[in-house]
Amino acid sequence: MQRELHCRVSETLWSALDERARSTGESVSHIVERALADELEVDHHSIFQVSTSGAVVKGVYTGCVSVGDLRRHGDFGVGTFDGLDGEMIMLDGRCFQARADGTVSEAPDDALTPFAVVTGFHADQQFDLPPVGGWADLCEAIDGLRRSENVFVGIRTEGRVERITVRAACRSVAGVDLVTATSTQAEFTLEAVAGTLVGFWTPSYARAITVAGYHLHFISEDRRFGGHVLDIAARGLVLSVHQETDVHLAIPETAEFLAADLRGDPGPALDVAEHGRPARQR
Ligand SMILES: [Zn+2]
After folding, report:
1. Could you tell me which of 190, 23, 36 has the C-alpha nearest to residue 98?
2. Distance 198 CA to ligand 1 centre (A)
3. How far is the CA of 166 from the centre of ligand 1 (A)?
4. Please, how many CA atoms are within 13 Å of residue 115, restricted to the half-sphere of its CB?
């Protein structure tokens, strides 16, 4: 929920604000919000993540943080559920579970997640995206609007898609690696559906922690269709971005996580499991 704040400031402060907004392209309200959050020590532009992508690749699927806890750290994000039971889409504080049987339901607060990435989403900037004919097109369109290769970005789009293909991970026993577990994933394609893309762009230096590049989930406006996005064609999407400059990592204390061998680069396995193909070279 957003509140409106009206207040008087000096000419000097106003000029400085205006100057900052011009030079960075940020909105005045965003600069004020960030300054207030800093002064009041409120989390802002923070990602809260449960576990690591490397652990998921190795089959560490036991849930360790509840949806209720997750919601104290954000209102927007992606993830999965205990036992790799489908895809998580958190949007405007509601947490949805898209399962491999094609159903979407609201996850209760006591549902557990083994991996999730959430933030308190506020749009720093909005853009009208050009028509996109596929996943690579979408990535390229957003690439041109990001300010840096080195800052995490929350990504939200609204609009109607012409075609979208999503997957929903199938429940798997712990210890089955992610590539094997997602080789039997359910995939669904829908045409002409309104909805929201929810997710993040992550710098490649963080690939041992989370999914590098674009990681987007979709939920339809009627909340009956969703999943991890594999392909999309759309025109007229409106993109909102939220720069993330602070990352909090909650490391599971489950026996499974503590004993996992997390050495090595999970990147190549993630490219196959999350994009169904080797990632674009960036
Ligand atoms: Zn995903």
Report:
1. 190
2. 10
3. 9
4. 23
Q: Which residues are within 8 A (CB) of 246 and not within 5 positions of it... i.e. 6 or more apart? A: 43, 45, 46, 47
Helix (H, G, I), strand (E, B) or coil at 242: strand
pTM (predicted TM-score): 0.84
**Do 24 and 157 have their domain in common?**
no
Task: Say if residue 103 is in the same domain as residue 28.
Answer: no
Per-residue tokens: 155: 């990504």
| CA 217 to ligand 1 centroid distance, Å | 6
Alpha-carbon span 22 to 222, nearest angstrom: 38
Same domain? For 207 and 112 the reply is: yes
pLDDT per position as a tens digit, 35-62 = 887 787 676 778 999 999 888 888 888 8
User: Cβ(234)–Cβ(33) under 8 Å?
Assistant: no
Kindly state whether residues 122 and 18 are assigned to the same domain.
Answer: no
Report pLDDT digits (tens) over 155-183.
Answer: 999 999 999 999 998 888 777 888 888 88
